[in-house]
Amino acid sequence: MQQHRLLLTSPIHEAVDFQVPGYGIGPDKKLSIPTMIEQMQEVALLSTRHLGVSVFDLEPKRLGWVLLGQRIELYHHPTLNDVCRIITCPTGFEKVFTYRDFHWLNPQTDEVLATASTTWMLMDLDKRRMATLPDWIKSIDEKTPPKAANLERATYKMVPPHEPEITRHFRVGYHELDFNGHLTNPVYVRWMLEGLDRKIFEGRTIKELRVQFSKEARYGDKLEVGISKTGHDGEFHHGLFRAGELIASLQTAFSAEESL
């Protein structure tokens, strides 16, 4: 739980305070998972701008970052008007992958509220395929925190839903696209969560979430959400499908409200 203190030893860490807004909470008055992901993307964008590797720096080179996987663990769910400190830092480079960790803290007590690990790759925007990390990006590795600071890597291979029940249908609209021209990551997660019945969320809170992005979704794509149980109480497999093809996977684990 003290890994965030090691993260702070890196000269390239980023720390931003954030107050939970009214538009980011649900019926339980808690910060929604999609809003949480949006806030982490904002802090990551700020970090990459300071490092000179943001979308604005890469686009002239016809390159862009693509999120491949994310693992979020929640220990204390932020609620309306709570002030959180989000700390993030690149935590390493490996072949064609780069990693970034996030820690959500109570800035008054230093209590860890949540953690998230992410895995990214660089994409050739013209060829729409993986690109090799150039040396000027890999040189950032010299300033990353010690390995003891690293969270568990989000490099797992997700198990797709087994015989999923199709529960939702969506069509990608213009205002759901990101600056790479495909469905923005928080919406992938939002739609897969929407596949669950509302009763699942009543009296329970998500304690862990794992997501894997496999394919791009584009404007006008018709998508379906499929859900299956894992065999463990309070755990579900979610899939986002396009014409039967799995384009993203999500696994959620819920705990009783009183335990958080």
Summarize the structure.
With 260 residues, the chain is of the alpha+beta class.
Model description:
This protein has 260 residues and is α+β, with helices and mostly antiparallel strands. It has helices at residues 3-7, 33-51, 55-58, 135-138, 185-194, 198-201, and strands at residues 14-19, 63-74, 83-94, 97-105, 112-124, 129-131, 165-171, 204-213, 222-229, 235-242, 245-256. Helix 2 runs antiparallel to helix 5 (185-194). A hairpin with a 5-residue loop joins strand 9 and strand 10. Strands 1, 2, 3, 4, 5, 6, 7, 8, 9, 10 and 11 form an eleven-stranded antiparallel β-sheet that branches. It folds into two domains: 3-149, Thiol Ester Dehydrase, Chain A (Roll), CATH 3.10.129.10; 165-259, Hotdog Thioesterase (Thiol Ester Dehydrase, Chain A), CATH 3.10.129. Helices cover 18% and strands 38% of the residues.
